[in-house]
Amino acid sequence: MSTPLIKLLHLSDIHLGSGFAHGRLNPETGLNTRLEDFIRALTHCMDRALAEPVDLVLFGGDAFPDATPPPLIQQALASQFRRLSAAGIPAVLLVGNHDQHAQGLGGASLSIYRTLGVPDVVVGDRLETHIISTRHGPVQVITLPWLTRSALLTRPDTEGLSLAQINDLLLDRLRVVLEGEIRRLDDAMPTILLAHAMVDTATYGAERFLAAGRGFTIPMALLARNCFDYVALGHVHRHQVLCEQPLMIYPGSIERVDFSEEKEEKGYLLVNVSRGQAQAEFCPLPVRPFKTIQVDLTAAEHPQAALMQAISGTNIVDAVVRCLYTLSSSQVDQIDQPALEAALATAHTYTLQVELSAQTSRRRLPETRH
Ligand SMILES: [Mn+2]
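Predict the joint structure of the above. Result:
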């Protein structure tokens, strides 16, 4: 008997409601254009899930910038996942660090789906195994949400310990609990670990700057177990394959959250999983470009011309642009600000940041945002 082949779509780090400063008000909709961009990226993912159709959607965590998104943004996310539910495609929504409250029980922004009993939606807010029936048979998914101390440790456990000792203790507990879940797995069923974590071998994306609360890293070997056919990760915004056997991948964020993601391709994964093997394909999303124009004009004979040339040499149409330039104080009156603004007008939005260089010190003038 051949084992079933499950086709799934894996996306992560939606961060719906982030980066409004890079957008502007759309007068036709009343919405910030960056919210519309993020919704468009999410809509693309759902369109693909429905068009395939896939058997399962895995969301790797961080739905919103924080645990209490405004209703409009909650609704925007819900109306997309609702399309899966309407088509009978199960989805697992994992809780990331941005979805948790700083104190107390986590995952309020996603646990509403469980509270409402949305058909085919599973919320992963604790370490546990879910048996999910799909069109092509059952699959078992272990959910590992963002781990906080309070999930596995009590206050007396950590008393008098250093941060490093606490992290070691937390890893020991994780190892034991994960082992318990692994022991109960059905060896014949395709098996997936869905984890929101900073794995120690990952290269950072914007998450370094987004970090909500102190995190801790998990050694890759702890997760790269041969009982897993696929390890679906979330948290790091830069797409990367961490391990081939078992296949372990961060899809990355679906839109650029800030300029640290300027050079990163954004997308989601289509993955075929059967018992003993997995293949993944990264599918790029058509997201808005971010462009940095950085020029040191201190040695330029004609600073305005040099700056205009740098701008015209960059494809800024519909992009989120930041233009950073350095001047000596004697050059300040050689810059024609209205001409710069006209040259940047085709950008979606732009900021101008001037830095003044003196012989000994540098000083930054207030940035202007457009
Ligand atoms: Mn995260």
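Residues 141 and 192 are 5 Å apart (CA to CA).
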